[in-house]
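Consider the following assembly input.
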Amino acid sequence: MAVSQPDLDAQGRDWVTAVRRGDVRRCARLITRIEARDETVTPIVQALYRQGGRSAVIGITGPPGAGKSTLVDKLIARYRARSQSVAVLAVDPASPFSGGAILGDRVRMARHNADDGVFIRSMSARGMLGGLARAAGDALCVLDAMGKDVILLETVGVGQSEIDIVRHALTVLIVQTPAGGDAVQAVKAGILEVGDVFALNKADAPGADRAVAALREAVEFRNDPHDANAWRPPIVQTQAPDGIGVDALLEALDGHLAHWRTHPEALRRRRLSQARSVLTDLVRDGLHRRHERGGESAARFAGMLDDLVDRRSDPHAAAARILTGLT
Amino acid sequence: MAVSQPDLDAQGRDWVTAVRRGDVRRCARLITRIEARDETVTPIVQALYRQGGRSAVIGITGPPGAGKSTLVDKLIARYRARSQSVAVLAVDPASPFSGGAILGDRVRMARHNADDGVFIRSMSARGMLGGLARAAGDALCVLDAMGKDVILLETVGVGQSEIDIVRHALTVLIVQTPAGGDAVQAVKAGILEVGDVFALNKADAPGADRAVAALREAVEFRNDPHDANAWRPPIVQTQAPDGIGVDALLEALDGHLAHWRTHPEALRRRRLSQARSVLTDLVRDGLHRRHERGGESAARFAGMLDDLVDRRSDPHAAAARILTGLT
């Protein structure tokens, strides 16, 4: 039941070729168009998706100030020392007010800019009003098609938007610090449930041991003790600026990749659940943007909303009708 | 293009009648079934929705500890003094760990329990894994059908889940305190954009004036200065335990209702955008639960996810296919 892909015109095929041979300028322009919600790039992204899926995508999230960017910087150096190519996609789901932080992070990572094996890109929610998870997913298709060995998908925060974004990754690294609010925020946001590896950064700060113990308890609570094959998320203590613990962290990330290789059924389940999340985001986005499209489909959707407001219909009936493609 | 409603059997009609005459025990049982995701109640909820829409629904959110429940308690007393009937739906999107807070809040509001004009109900995310916004929407249909004049929909927190929930309301009250993190969290979560009325509670704490000024600036930033008809969200300083500012807050909430009455086009736009949010939540929920259903539709969805994982299809093509009900 594969769905046929929209035909690519000669120009589209040219874009696909340019991305696949790793043309940095063309890739950057494509991501800019994705960020601007230019829908004419969608067929290109679709073609890239269908030919892709080889990069190891590592999602990284945690509260602002946890030291994610410094850790990412150190991880890049480690991957490069092993001659692996790396892309970084830094996504900021917050409002325009916090634009400064991401900019600062970009400058900090500038030392890798002269390195052809590293591609760094940031993306913000500015003016996006949702759809950031969609845009991040499309940008990942580009980075993956470039043939990068490792993609670090970094996002700031611990809310649902961040979870939606890191769900694109097959390995999720949660960065926490011993600071008081971190653990509570993480529990509230349900982010512990999506973490595959935990870094307790600023491990020299007071309360680190207690924070590790609390994390361990929360993570073990989540595991099924009877499932010997289940992945046990490691908790690694790091001090990013001095590089302390970064080797152990790399080992933990490698360990998770190795776990996927030796547990193909678990990997497939994860990929399926990921596909469902991505698809759900796209459907939601499609509904939110439907009215912008114009045409008969927009009019039909507007009519559906009118019927809801006037109580001639109800949300359950309308949802069932929208999902007729599945019934 | 109204969609016909599923036929209600005699038992279903009996439930509808019981809810509409305000049978408290039957209503509580119905909400329990909604919370348990018992889909057999959906036709009843659909019928209630189509006959409803009269209650003034006020959504209330803000960080934990901001004093929302105490404010709600005081507001209930004010509405009751005017002989308006009130329902409270307290929704906790957080993890099981925070169950205690809601329980405490319920106990605090127990003084209204002997009052027939007040119906108080809490609902938690425990074991729900999403779908809480859907369940809250269905529960609102029940409270609305009971004929309550005012429904206070209280939710704890400032994340996307809370925004999804308070979107069910036509008036959104955001409770903040002068405490350091509140404003930053609210800006990050985009919650300022959904607030119609703001309460700065604990207004006797240090930093209250600065917090009011920051809120005012953020709220005005959001307004179109050229639109003389736009609602200007009032910011009311309160000290909930002593009841200080509660009358002014009630006046602000009344003022927003009056604004809707004198601006029917704006109200319609709000209702349409609300209908779109509710519908989108239901579609998302429908996709997440599709595999639980069994049957041909679940198999078709599973096949779609297989095609995505095996890259025979891509997310954009799959989303378009799901939305064929609109094309």
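The two ends of chain A are 14 Å apart (CA to CA). Ask yourself how this observation constrains the way the partners meet.
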